[in-house]
UniProtKB/TrEMBL annotation:
<protein>
    <recommendedName>
        <fullName>Pectin acetylesterase</fullName>
    </recommendedName>
</protein>
<feature type="signal peptide">
    <location>
        <begin position="1"/>
        <end position="20"/>
    </location>
</feature>
<dbReference type="GO" id="GO:0016787">
    <property type="term" value="F:hydrolase activity"/>
</dbReference>
<dbReference type="InterPro" id="IPR004963">
    <property type="entry name" value="PAE/NOTUM"/>
</dbReference>
<dbReference type="Pfam" id="PF03283">
    <property type="entry name" value="PAE"/>
</dbReference>
<comment type="similarity">
    <text>Belongs to the pectinacetylesterase family. Notum subfamily.</text>
</comment>
<keyword id="KW-0732">Signal</keyword>
């Protein structure tokens, strides 16, 4: 009797051991598509790892060939060309060279601007105002990426990335001796010096050369101001531009009286443009506008540009709604919390659509404008960029629409959602800023049952409970078995 029970106990222990192996992931029956747990995957998140050990670990990692593709390159004779950052340091650019290609991307960095002495002084002590601590290499993003998965259209092109260190949306022409704040605001001179150097070193002004010139936010404004001037420098090469999130409209702030002249921010812009920057804008636009600074607004400068351009702009530009607002006016809350805010946003979105009318009807230009609360689609923040570049209109993402425009020479690639009376975001760009999303189209429901898998914390809890049951069963059976042996 006791021999049979001993054999049964051994069998139960073996079954428990095999079940434990399965439950701990050696046989992934519960997680057929999961990754096996590795202890060293926590290495970089442990708080007691020494910095040196962390650096050594990062050196051992295999890096993709597309990372750190841009190399820091000095601007020759930068001081004499007035290519200087806010703090007087010499501006630089980053280059990814492909000697087999005659196509070039020139991307201007985003980064807002500064209007007060304190904000400009603070800016001059960091990377948006000084080149002193720039790294030797950078990884390009969006059209400056060398990764064909991320950037299939332009990955093999030559890339130039221009860091933004002048605080003047790339239009300034005023050195510290003439600047009210005693700082160098020479963004136009930086752009000009870089293009002169590219012409001298790589002959980018030869026939057959194509150039894509643009940027996000302040970089987009810099493109509008400089592109026709640059087009004159690089002829007979062809140049096209893109503006991502740099399309602002002359629309009053929330709480500001409408129809009372230009918005209050226009006065602030006028001061910066004339007293700090001595701003450079498109020359044809300047000749036809009563005030030159108006040429920084896309809807006013667009009709004067000869170079084809593509515009990315959300129906509700969150930067204009929340940042380009004087302290005397309330800041728009996104999502809106009052009926008056929702009503204002409905009118704001319609005004954005109205401002794009010329671009929509153009035969050479294009635009991507979804019903979203956002600013730029391809900024430096890679986390938000992953979400914004996934936004869709009629199944087209911003990058795909842009590529379609580029390939078709402007005959296709325009995707614009109709304005709404009440904010209601496109579901593909829904975020914490949205009040609600449009209902997505119903998906097809299959009657065929699908196998269920357990993953994550639920799988872990199930594994622990199964192991506990096995252990309890062994202990109970062992207790009964040895009690019977003693009684015998």
């Amino acid at each position: 009797m006791w021999c049979q029970r001993l054999v049964l106990t051994l069998w139960l222990m073996i079954a428990c051991f095999v079940g434990g192996l399965q439950d701990f992931g050696f046989v992934s029956s519960l997680q057929p598509h999961g990754r096996p747990f590795k202890l060293n995957s926590l290495k970089d998140s442990l708080p007691n790892i020494q910095p040196r050990a962390r650096r050594e670990s990062s050196r051992r990692r295999v890096r993709r060939k597309h990372t750190y593709n841009l190399k820091r390159t000095p601007i020759r004779d930068a001081k004499n060309r007035n290519a200087l950052c806010l703090d007087g340091s010499e501006a630089v650019f980053y280059l990814s060279r492909n000697s087999d290609s005659k196509y070039w991307v020139v991307q201007l960095q985003e980064g807002g601007s500064c209007g007060t002495y304190e904000s400009c002084l603070h800016r001059s002590r960091g990377p948006l105002g000084s080149s002193r601590n720039y790294s030797d290499y950078l990884t390009g993003t969006f059209v400056a990426s060398d990764d064909p998965q991320e950037n299939p259209m332009f990955s093999s092109w030559n890339k130039v990335f221009v860091p933004y260190c002048s605080g003047d949306v790339f239009v300034g022409r005023r050195g510290k001796d003439q600047n009210d704040y005693g700082m160098d605001m020479c963004g136009h001179f930086i752009v000009k010096a870089i293009f002169f150097q590219l012409i001298e070193d790589y002959r980018i002004n030869k026939p057959g050369t194509e150039i894509l010139f643009g940027g996000a936010s302040s970089g987009g404004l810099g493109m509008f101001a400089n592109i026709d001037y640059i087009e004159g420098l690089v002829k007979p090469a062809e140049i096209r531009g893109y503006n991502d999130g740099g399309w602002f409209t002359l629309y009053p702030n929330f709480g500001e009286t409408a129809n009372a002249g230009p918005p209050f921010f226009f006065q602030v812009l006028s001061y910066m443009f004339h007293n700090l920057w001595d701003g450079f804008v498109d020359e044809t636009c300047r000749a036809n506008m009563p005030k030159a600074e108006a040429c920084l607004y896309g809807e006013l400068v667009f009709k004067h540009l000869s170079a084809p351009v593509y515009v990315f702009v959300a129906q509700w530009d969150s930067y204009q709604l929340q940042e380009l607002v004087h302290s005397k006016f309330p800041t728009m809350r996104l999502p809106p919390e009052l009926p008056s805010e929702a009503e204002y946003l409905g009118k704001f979105g319609k005004n954005t659509h109205r401002s794009l009318r010329r671009v929509i009807n153009s035969q050479k230009d294009g635009v991507f404008s979804p019903a979203c609360f956002m600013h730029s689609f391809s900024g430096d923040n890679l986390t938000s960029t992953k979400q914004t570049l996934a936004c869709e209109i009629d199944g087209k993402t911003p990058y795909k629409a842009f590529s379609e425009w580029f390939i078709s020479n402007g005959t296709r690639g325009t995707y614009v959602e109709e304005p709404l009376d009440i904010p209601e975001c496109n579901p593909s760009c829904c975020s914490k800023l949205c009040i609600k999303c449009r209902k997505p189209r119903p998906s097809v429901v299959y009657d065929e049952p699908t196998p269920q898998t357990i993953s994550g914390n639920g799988a872990s809890r199930l594994q622990q409970s199964v192991v506990t049951i096995w252990i309890c069963a062994v202990l109970i059976y062992s207790f009964v078995f040895w009690r019977d042996v003693v009684l015998l």
